[in-house]
Design goal:
Number of helices: 8
Distance between the termini: 8 Å
Structural class: mainly alpha
Number of strands: 2
Order of helices and strands: EEHHHHHHHH
Shape: globular
Length: 174
């Protein structure tokens, strides 16, 4: 598979990595916190639960820690971070000419199979994020930058699993 969609090349991964590192550094300097994503979804779930059943949401230990935060669930840093990620991703794709409604897939897999696999993989990652009390971005970026041993073990395990699974999955894409 080439490194282009619609004839335009992807960003240089080394330059993108340096940019991401600078964004992480700016997040620590400006906000006093690192990057992550799963907290935004948990905060949003807590806010929605409190809107539907306030008493039950406040009695739930998982939701209560997000509802008791200063400013409530809708003013938390990670919620704004994820909104910015969505806007930035959309703007980046539009500026690069890669904003297309297309399902990327190999010749041996249908669009429906690809979407089902993406949904299943995303669901497994979501459950894993809840069980690990953090997502891959928080673990790898923030935890790795803070030299957390657990984050480094997580990343080694992630890369080992990816390198193990890649040959099995590659057959579906070629």
């Amino acid at each position: 598979m080439s490194n282009t969609i619609g004839g335009r090349p992807y960003s240089n991964p080394y330059l993108a990595g340096v940019g991401l590192g600078l964004v992480l550094l700016a997040a620590f300097v400006v906000m006093g916190r690192g990057l992550g994503a799963s907290g935004a979804f948990a905060t949003t779930a807590a806010g929605l639960a409190a809107g539907v059943a306030p008493a039950r949401a406040h009695a739930n230990p998982f939701f209560a820690r997000y509802l008791g935060a200063e400013g409530g669930p809708w003013l938390q840093w990670l919620v704004f971070e994820i909104i910015g990620v969505a806007i930035g991703g959309f703007a980046s794709a539009a500026l690069a000419g890669r904003l297309h409604a297309v399902v990327e897939r190999g010749p041996r897999i249908s669009s429906n199979q690809r979407l089902a696999a993406a949904f299943a993989g995303g669901s497994v990652m979501g459950v894993g994020g809840v069980l690990a009390r953090g997502c891959t971005s928080g673990q790898a970026l923030t935890g790795g930058a803070l030299l957390s041993v657990g984050s480094w073990v997580f990343m080694i395990g992630t890369f080992a699993a990816a390198y193990t699974a890649a040959p099995l999955l590659r057959r579906r894409w070629t």
